[in-house]
Amino acid sequence: xxxxxxxxxxxxxxxxxxxxxxxxxxxxxxxxxxxxxxxxxxxxxxxxxxxxxxxxxxxxxxxxxxxxxxxxxxxxxxxxxxxxxxxxxxxxxxxxxxxxxxxxxxxxxxxxxxxxxxxxxxxxxxxxxxxxxxxxxxxxxxxxxxxxxxxxxxxxxxxxxxxxxxxxxxxxxxxxxxxxxxxxxxxxxxxxxxxxxxxxxxxxxxxxxxxxxxxxxxxxxxxxxxxxxxxxxxxxxxxxxxxxxxxxxxxxxxxxxxxxxxxxxxxxxxxxxxxxxxxxxxxxxxxxxxxxxxxxxxxxxxxxxxxxxxxxxxxxxx
Length: 318
Prior knowledge:
Structural class: alpha+beta
Mean pLDDT: 91
Shape: elongated
Distance between the termini: 49 Å
Number of strands: 10
Helix content: 40-55%
CATH architecture of the largest domain: Orthogonal Bundle
Strand content: 15-25%
CATH class of the largest domain: Mainly Alpha
Number of helices: 9
CATH superfamily of the largest domain: Acyl-CoA dehydrogenase/oxidase, N-terminal domain
Largest sheet: 4 strands, mixed
Strand order of the largest sheet: 1-4-5-8
């Protein structure tokens, strides 16, 4: 038996959904900007988690450019790594919107932790849920929900924005493929236990030869390369990942042969919404920190917030 997401998230997922409507079209359309009662409870729960378990480690993790060992354990224990994974696989069975709210709330405290949660929920889990065979789902989804971080291996030195010009190949062999190539700027690679790897199984077909493969970390020939020394988001590792004759089976194909480009597009689009949530959360966290400071800082016998120009600065940047 695998461990399920915490009771709190399951309780939220099972509550009757409250449908709040906007005034558009006579109040017949759900309001996109009004959270439900359950979503407000989720945000409150994630906020408390971030304050108690993330905030005390932020400065050290940023200085060391390293994730604290217990951080991943806490994220999994809280159920934040399998928000949309169905309960039968050990996840919380919640919605994409719930994932986005979680990412935003975490980013208010540390964007690096938000990146980790974003990639797991909006890229990896979605790719497995929508494209995995039942065998792949049963093997990996319980682990992705409870104890295994994953990485999305698409970008290369010559395939950044033009991702489909990738050079990594998957040469057919008996019963599977042999992957050769390297990926750059791969988030969470240092800690990942499994990788979704995009390689071209038939270069003669161009991007229509690209296929997605599920590759475990312990696969012979998989090498985690240099870790980038970044200016920010330092607790989330960004590394080169090398594939030196890594052999995978036909059963390790995610989706269909030659359909990897579709998987990339279909998962990157919601992933970009997660990035937007990170930026909103970071901005809100910065604003909250600035407000606390100007209210607490005293000069000439009063709070600096009482000086005329300070509120103008705050308002101008909001």
